[in-house]
Amino acid sequence: MLDYFDSQTSKFLLITILAGMVFFGLIFYFLKKLGKSPKNILPVNFAGKMRLPLALFMLALVLKIIKTNDRILEFIEENFLSHVSTLLFILSITWILIVILKAFKRNILLKYDMSASDNVHARKVYTQFTVLERVLMFLIILFAVSIALMSFDSIRSIGVSMLTSAGIAGIIIGFAAQKALGTLMAGIQIAFTQPIRLDDVVVVEGEWGRIEEIYLTYVVVKIWDKRRLVLPTTYFIEQPFQNWTRNSSDILGTVFIYTDYNIPFDALREELTRILKNTDLWDGEVNVLQVTDTNNEMVETRALMSAIDSPTAWDLRVHVREKLVIFIQENYPHSLPRTRVEMQSRKDSDKVEKATKEPDKSDLLRDK
């Protein structure tokens, strides 16, 4: 390509390209050095993620400089160079902003431990930054695409010609996109008000699960059997649901035992205490056994216990239920639920039948 230019133009091209490469190398080396220092806020692989957008930025800058040479413009159109450099600037700056946004989020979230037993505050921060990151990324990309499209003269002229019908079109689009915009605003509302957070334990649509992902328009709930329930964000704004970890992860578990009336409750209470003390699932807080209901056939007894979180509470309930049933079977089998039927002897039943058939003398005189 240099054969088409004179020596001065060729030197100009070489110097511009070399200067761009040197400048790119210096910035990349600085970012790589900065990423290795434990005192800075940048992640270790920040330079690697910035390599490509930084190269595109330097290429756009080189094209801008080349455009100033009249000799080069004899072979390449100025509008073409200007347009390509503008698009490269938009793409590279958008890319750089997204990388910086992700690095900032990662640096903030490193201070919070999601694996801790009581991670309510960590889940709150994770939820806010995750949703806000997606909102900002959406706005950055939308803004970049808008600027890129407006750089085309044909699209700009079409936009100007459509201004006359913008009022009617805006009303139509507003009605058509009302639900989509409502869903988008619900996602932003969830980020600030936080009726749900990442890793929250919820009961929705009769299913128990954890909040796995929160997007602007939908939420993914991981069900206990590894299914995924996908719900619109508006569901958690408009519909009632259970959140078991709203303020803390600890929770109470209940076990209902149905027995006969002759069950010794003190022995059952002592056995519950023994079972809880011999398992690591119990957090040592709540240990209660109460008679909660009775009917003509059995007694309902409720064992109440506490655990550090809902999965542990479930395992504790299953363990306590099994041990109490075994205890009753081995020590008080006669106290298992039973149905009683009272049988009368033949002689007694004959007397009852005779008494119903033969009237008393006083009754006969009374009738006369």
Could you describe the 3D structure shown?
The chain is of the alpha+beta class and 368 residues long. The protein contains 13 helices and eight strands. It has helices spanning 7-36, 46-66, 70-73, 78-109, 120-150, 153-161, 166-176, 178-193, 235-238, 265-277, 310-331, 346-357, 361-367, and strands spanning 201-204, 207-214, 218-223, 228-232, 242-243, 251-259, 287-294, 299-307. The strands form two sheets. Strands 4-3-2-1-5 form a five-stranded antiparallel β-sheet. A three-stranded antiparallel β-sheet has the order 6-8-7, covered by helices on one side. A hairpin with a 2-residue loop joins β1 (201-204) and β2 (207-214). α10 crosses α11. The longest helix is centred in the first third of the chain and has 32 residues, at 78-109. The radius of gyration is 38 Å and the shape is elongated. The protein starts with 6 loop residues before the first helix and ends with a helix. The model has no long low-confidence stretch (mean pLDDT 77).
